[in-house]
Amino acid sequence: MEFNATLLGQAITFAILVWFTMKFVWPPLTNMMDERAKRIADGLAAAERGKQDLEAAEQRVADEIRKAKQQSTEIMLAAEKRANQIVEEAKDAARIEGAKLVADAKAEIEQETLRAKETLREQVAVLAVAGAEKILRREIDSAKNADLLASIKAEL
Protein backbone atom coordinates (compact mmCIF):
# COMPACT_ATOMS: atom_id res chain seq x y z
CA MET A 1 0.00 0.00 0.00
CA GLU A 2 2.77 2.18 0.33
CA PHE A 3 2.91 2.61 -3.35
CA ASN A 4 -0.71 3.60 -3.53
CA ALA A 5 -0.41 5.98 -0.60
CA THR A 6 2.59 7.63 -2.22
CA LEU A 7 0.72 7.85 -5.48
CA LEU A 8 -2.29 9.23 -3.71
CA GLY A 9 -0.08 11.73 -1.83
CA GLN A 10 1.57 12.81 -5.07
CA ALA A 11 -1.85 13.14 -6.74
CA ILE A 12 -3.11 15.31 -3.89
CA THR A 13 0.09 17.38 -3.95
CA PHE A 14 -0.23 17.71 -7.69
CA ALA A 15 -3.88 18.75 -7.33
CA ILE A 16 -2.90 21.36 -4.73
CA LEU A 17 -0.13 22.55 -7.03
CA VAL A 18 -2.57 22.80 -9.94
CA TRP A 19 -5.11 24.61 -7.77
CA PHE A 20 -2.43 26.97 -6.41
CA THR A 21 -1.07 27.59 -9.89
CA MET A 22 -4.54 28.22 -11.34
CA LYS A 23 -5.52 30.45 -8.42
CA PHE A 24 -2.35 32.50 -7.86
CA VAL A 25 0.13 31.98 -10.68
CA TRP A 26 -1.98 31.49 -13.79
CA PRO A 27 -4.14 34.65 -13.58
CA PRO A 28 -1.16 37.06 -13.39
CA LEU A 29 0.54 35.17 -16.24
CA THR A 30 -2.67 35.29 -18.25
CA ASN A 31 -3.06 38.97 -17.47
CA MET A 32 0.53 39.67 -18.47
CA MET A 33 0.10 37.73 -21.71
CA ASP A 34 -3.20 39.53 -22.41
CA GLU A 35 -1.59 42.89 -21.69
CA ARG A 36 1.35 42.02 -23.89
CA ALA A 37 -0.98 40.86 -26.64
CA LYS A 38 -2.93 44.11 -26.23
CA ARG A 39 0.30 46.17 -26.36
CA ILE A 40 1.40 44.27 -29.45
CA ALA A 41 -2.02 44.80 -31.03
CA ASP A 42 -1.92 48.50 -30.07
CA GLY A 43 1.59 48.77 -31.47
CA LEU A 44 0.53 47.10 -34.70
CA ALA A 45 -2.53 49.37 -34.88
CA ALA A 46 -0.36 52.41 -34.19
CA ALA A 47 2.09 51.25 -36.83
CA GLU A 48 -0.79 50.86 -39.28
CA ARG A 49 -2.12 54.31 -38.36
CA GLY A 50 1.38 55.72 -38.73
CA LYS A 51 1.67 54.07 -42.11
CA GLN A 52 -1.69 55.51 -43.16
CA ASP A 53 -0.73 58.92 -41.77
CA LEU A 54 2.53 58.72 -43.69
CA GLU A 55 0.70 57.86 -46.89
CA ALA A 56 -1.77 60.70 -46.27
CA ALA A 57 1.11 63.08 -45.57
CA GLU A 58 2.88 61.96 -48.74
CA GLN A 59 -0.35 62.55 -50.65
CA ARG A 60 -0.71 66.03 -49.12
CA VAL A 61 2.92 66.79 -49.95
CA ALA A 62 2.36 65.65 -53.54
CA ASP A 63 -0.77 67.81 -53.73
CA GLU A 64 1.07 70.82 -52.31
CA ILE A 65 3.94 70.31 -54.75
CA ARG A 66 1.46 70.07 -57.63
CA LYS A 67 -0.30 73.23 -56.42
CA ALA A 68 3.03 75.04 -56.02
CA LYS A 69 4.06 74.04 -59.55
CA GLN A 70 0.72 75.18 -60.89
CA GLN A 71 0.99 78.49 -59.03
CA SER A 72 4.54 79.02 -60.24
CA THR A 73 3.40 78.33 -63.81
CA GLU A 74 0.54 80.81 -63.40
CA ILE A 75 2.90 83.39 -61.93
CA MET A 76 5.36 82.89 -64.78
CA LEU A 77 2.58 83.24 -67.36
CA ALA A 78 1.32 86.39 -65.65
CA ALA A 79 4.87 87.78 -65.54
CA GLU A 80 5.39 87.05 -69.23
CA LYS A 81 2.05 88.64 -70.05
CA ARG A 82 2.93 91.71 -67.98
CA ALA A 83 6.37 91.89 -69.61
CA ASN A 84 4.78 91.78 -73.06
CA GLN A 85 2.28 94.41 -71.97
CA ILE A 86 5.09 96.65 -70.69
CA VAL A 87 6.98 96.20 -73.97
CA GLU A 88 3.86 97.11 -75.95
CA GLU A 89 3.26 100.14 -73.73
CA ALA A 90 6.87 101.21 -74.24
CA LYS A 91 6.51 100.77 -78.02
CA ASP A 92 3.31 102.81 -78.01
CA ALA A 93 4.95 105.51 -75.91
CA ALA A 94 7.95 105.51 -78.25
CA ARG A 95 5.66 105.80 -81.29
CA ILE A 96 3.78 108.68 -79.69
CA GLU A 97 7.02 110.39 -78.69
CA GLY A 98 8.44 109.81 -82.19
CA ALA A 99 5.32 111.25 -83.80
CA LYS A 100 5.52 114.23 -81.45
CA LEU A 101 9.19 114.77 -82.31
CA VAL A 102 8.41 114.52 -86.03
CA ALA A 103 5.54 116.98 -85.66
CA ASP A 104 7.76 119.35 -83.67
CA ALA A 105 10.51 119.00 -86.25
CA LYS A 106 8.04 119.70 -89.09
CA ALA A 107 6.73 122.75 -87.25
CA GLU A 108 10.27 123.99 -86.68
CA ILE A 109 11.13 123.36 -90.33
CA GLU A 110 8.01 125.26 -91.35
CA GLN A 111 8.97 128.15 -89.09
CA GLU A 112 12.53 128.14 -90.41
CA THR A 113 11.17 128.06 -93.96
CA LEU A 114 8.92 131.03 -93.21
CA ARG A 115 11.84 132.90 -91.60
CA ALA A 116 14.04 132.10 -94.57
CA LYS A 117 11.34 133.30 -97.00
CA GLU A 118 10.89 136.49 -94.96
CA THR A 119 14.64 137.05 -94.90
CA LEU A 120 14.82 136.39 -98.62
CA ARG A 121 11.94 138.82 -99.24
CA GLU A 122 13.70 141.46 -97.19
CA GLN A 123 16.95 140.89 -99.07
CA VAL A 124 15.16 140.95 -102.42
CA ALA A 125 13.36 144.11 -101.33
CA VAL A 126 16.68 145.67 -100.27
CA LEU A 127 18.21 144.69 -103.62
CA ALA A 128 15.17 145.98 -105.47
CA VAL A 129 15.31 149.21 -103.54
CA ALA A 130 19.03 149.51 -104.23
CA GLY A 131 18.43 148.85 -107.91
CA ALA A 132 15.51 151.21 -107.96
CA GLU A 133 17.59 153.85 -106.22
CA LYS A 134 20.15 153.66 -108.93
CA ILE A 135 17.44 153.95 -111.53
CA LEU A 136 15.71 156.74 -109.64
CA ARG A 137 18.83 158.75 -109.23
CA ARG A 138 18.56 159.21 -112.90
CA GLU A 139 14.94 160.20 -112.59
CA ILE A 140 13.77 163.03 -110.42
CA ASP A 141 10.33 162.07 -109.05
CA SER A 142 11.23 160.17 -105.84
CA ALA A 143 7.69 160.16 -104.30
CA LYS A 144 6.23 158.14 -107.15
CA ASN A 145 9.19 155.81 -107.04
CA ALA A 146 8.82 155.28 -103.25
CA ASP A 147 5.18 154.28 -103.74
CA LEU A 148 6.16 151.94 -106.51
CA LEU A 149 8.90 150.37 -104.36
CA ALA A 150 6.50 149.92 -101.41
CA SER A 151 4.01 148.09 -103.64
CA ILE A 152 6.79 145.87 -105.03
CA LYS A 153 7.99 145.12 -101.50
CA ALA A 154 4.45 144.18 -100.45
CA GLU A 155 4.10 141.84 -103.43
CA LEU A 156 7.30 140.05 -102.61
Automatic annotation (TrEMBL):
Job description of the protein: Component of the F(0) channel, it forms part of the peripheral stalk, linking F(1) to F(0). The b'-subunit is a diverged and duplicated form of b found in plants and photosynthetic bacteria.
Protein family per UniProt: Belongs to the ATPase B chain family.
Parts of the chain that traverse the membrane: 6-26
GO MF term set: proton-transporting ATP synthase activity, rotational mechanism; proton-transporting ATPase activity, rotational mechanism
Record-linked Pfam families: ATP-synt_B (PF00430)
SUPFAM superfamilies, alphabetized: F1F0 ATP synthase subunit B, membrane domain
Coiled coil: 44-74
Key words, A-Z: ATP synthesis, Cell inner membrane, Cell membrane, CF(0), Coiled coil, Hydrogen ion transport, Ion transport, Membrane, Transmembrane, Transmembrane helix, Transport
Membrane-topology annotation of the record: Single-pass membrane protein
Official protein name in the record: ATP synthase subunit b
InterPro entries in alphabetical order: ATP_synth_B-like_membr_sf, ATP_synth_b/b'su_bac/chlpt, ATP_synth_F0_bsu_bac, ATP_synthase_B_chain
Subunit structure: F-type ATPases have 2 components, F(1) - the catalytic core - and F(0) - the membrane proton channel. F(1) has five subunits: alpha(3), beta(3), gamma(1), delta(1), epsilon(1). F(0) has three main subunits: a(1), b(2) and c(10-14). The alpha and beta chains form an alternating ring which encloses part of the gamma chain. F(1) is attached to F(0) by a central stalk formed by the gamma and epsilon chains, while a peripheral stalk is formed by the delta and b chains. F-type ATPases have 2 components, F(1) - the catalytic core - and F(0) - the membrane proton channel. F(1) has five subunits: alpha(3), beta(3), gamma(1), delta(1), epsilon(1). F(0) has four main subunits: a(1), b(2) and c(10-14). The alpha and beta chains form an alternating ring which encloses part of the gamma chain. F(1) is attached to F(0) by a central stalk formed by the gamma and epsilon chains, while a peripheral stalk is formed by the delta and b chains.
Annotated localization: Cell membrane; Endomembrane system
Cellular component, GO, one term: endomembrane system
